[in-house]
Amino acid sequence: MKSLLFKTASDYLLPLLLLFSVFMLLRGHYEPGGGFVGGLMAAIAFLIHSFAHGLKETRNIIRINPGMLMPIGLLLTLLAGIAPWLIGQPFLTGLWFEEPFRFVGVVGTALLFDIGVYLVVIGATLTIMFSITETV
Amino acid sequence: MNNILVIAPILLQLFAGTILLFFWTKTQIQKVLSILFSFLSLGLGIWLFLLTWKDGIQFTHAGNWAAPFGISFVADLLSATLVLIASISGLAVSIFSVGTMREERLKFGFFPIMHFLLMGLSGAFLAGDMFNLYVWFEVVIISSFVLLTLGSTKSQLEGAIKYVSLNLLASSLFLIGIGFVYGLTGSLNFADVAVKLSAISNRGIINVTAGIFLVSFGIKSAIFPMYFWLPASYHTPPPAVSAIFGGLLTKLGVYALVRTFTLMFGGDEFLGIMLSIIAALTILSGGLGALLQKNLSKAFGYLIICHIGFMVAGLGMFTEVAILGTVFYLFHDIIVKTNLFMVAGLVLKINGTQDISKLGGMYKSYPLISILLSIPLFSLVGIPPLSGFWPKIFLIQGGLASEDYFLIAFIVLGSFLTLWVVAKIWAEVFWKNAENLPVKASGLYFNQMSKANQSMVIIPIIFLSIVSLYIGFAAENIYVLSEKIAADLMNPQNYIETILGIKTILP
After folding, report:
1. What is the rounded (10 degree) CA torsion for A41, A47, A53, A55?
2. Looking at residues B219-231, what average pLDDT do you find?
3. Chain B residue with minimal CA distance to A88?
4. Which residues on chain A are in Cβ contact (under 8 Å) with B119?
5. What backbone phi and psi angles, to 5 degrees, belong to B22?
6. pLDDT digit string, tens, across residues B386-427
């Protein structure tokens, strides 16, 4: 798209939306949000950028092939699932740090799981949208 | 016994699929890794089976929430055996697809999706709660959609549309059934539901619920009159995919039927009659359909339907001996049907066609391979002492005990029809004089393949034939196993008490 307004706005929107997506990811455990919504939001941030600057530019920003985010995310979720095995607890038992971290809040395996979901969603959405953009 | 490692077979397949995703375009690495992971999963399957055999039911509650609130994964003897058998045919298919799958299909992620499919299957066998069973069913069918359409030829897409639409219908019915059960009992855990359903006096509404499950699982396992999608779709994908579909997918429906109709809806007279009639018609329509087919894979597709009928018949009789027959048949059928579709794939590789009337002279040109292929074919018919013979004995025995002479007649008729189909295939494909077949432009013929690839095609067929021979010649071991499973299924007391961790008294 050649609109100057859109291009300029997208430069500011990309970091803002990405920040917001991380915010959504972190607040997700007890409040509305979470890995899925956060991931969609991050994917939208990259999509807007690709509409404004072209696919090549966006691929340069992301650096790795978005398809690779899917297995990475899946591995993280798997890790979050089997981490309790180490202390003899069943699959997917929530393990938490005692003290809450500053800004992030209470951290546990649920957050790791959510980060995995976040990456899978970004990877899947971007792969779908990029391949549609490439074929059109 | 509480054991946190019960879900390891599921997680191993998830791990395998995930690792394979990293090597999306590097098909050589995928081939090696897939076989490696399949061997590992076979090892895990054996471990879980031996553990269950020695120590009884193994279970874990995911997230450490006790049943019936948490999600239970339960490995009783039936589940553990099925996980083991699924990993056996998974290994065979993995090796077979290394030999036969075309490079361009492998590049679209055949191996990762195959491992996700196997994950769904082991998940469904180990699920201890209805909604999870539904989720694993979804994992299985979504993976199967991808495998079915991989390569997107016209016939594949046509088959896939029928397959997808009917399977989605089945899934939504399953979900409606789950809604009914939840409304009736307020629980979804198999053990808990079994206890609470037995306390409900309104049998009518339970039968309606059971009917919904019957239709849903019936579509998935291709029983009469809901089997039309199977012969329309199973011959379209590459042989390796057909093998895993033919061997495992319909049997998943049968497993779900066995599980729900013994644990939750067991022993109802009306349902017994329904199942018996459906079984008889399934046997008849599958057998007659197979007789008419000119395409090898299509004929095998109809034979799947025919033999699903045997298993449903055992469920309809609902005596311990009959259930024993059903379970025994299930084990034999998974191995033999996986093998059959690989055989069909090998015939296609050698001759370039699967048209029975055009094929011929296999015995003359490939005598050793023909003798090998005779093992799965005659195991299917059940010529004693091959593996198909024993479960039918128990089914007939069960019929005699419950005086279901009508079903016995159909089982004998079904065996006869199977014999007829296999004899016809043997005579036409192996004994008849060969015609000169037109040479295909695309794809590699068997004798053009490298020696390594040729052995990759032959080895899994030999492997599954050996397993089939074992089931046939060491039938005593399988009999003891099936007897124990049947006893557990008919008296679910132990299952329920172990999962819920309390003493309950069923009326």
Report:
1. 140
2. 90
3. B4
4. none
5. -65, -25
6. 888 999 999 999 999 888 898 999 999 999 999 999 999 999
The ipTM of this complex is 0.93
Instruction: Decide if A82 touches B, using CB distance below 8 A.
Output: yes
Looking at CA atoms only, how far is residue B71 from chain A in angstroms?
10
Domain boundaries, chain B: 4-500
CA–CA separation, B485 and B297 (whole Å): 32
Query: Is pLDDT larger for residue B457 or for residue B67?
Result: B457
Structure token pair of residue B336: 């033999």
DSSP B189-200: BHHHHHHHHHT-
The pLDDT confidence band at residue B2, using thresholds 50, 70 and 90, is confident
Domain spans of chain A?
4-135
In the numeric block, which tokens belong to residue B344?
């069909």
Q: Which residues contact B161 (CB under 8 A, 6 or more apart)?
A: none
Round to whole Å and give the CA distance between B97 and B93: 6
Element (H or E) spanning A46, and its range? Answer: helix A35-53
DSSP code, position B246? I
The fraction of chain B above a pLDDT of 70, given in percent, is 98
User: CB of B296 within 8 A of CB of B46?
Assistant: no
Which residues, including other chains, have CB under 8 Å from residue B423's CB and lie 6 or more apart?
Answer: none
Residue A126 and residue A46: Cα distance in Å, rounded?
8
CB contact under 8 A, B4 and A94: no
Note whether A89 contacts B4, CB cutoff 8 Å.
Answer: yes
Q: How far apart are CA B52 and CA B57, in angstroms?
A: 6
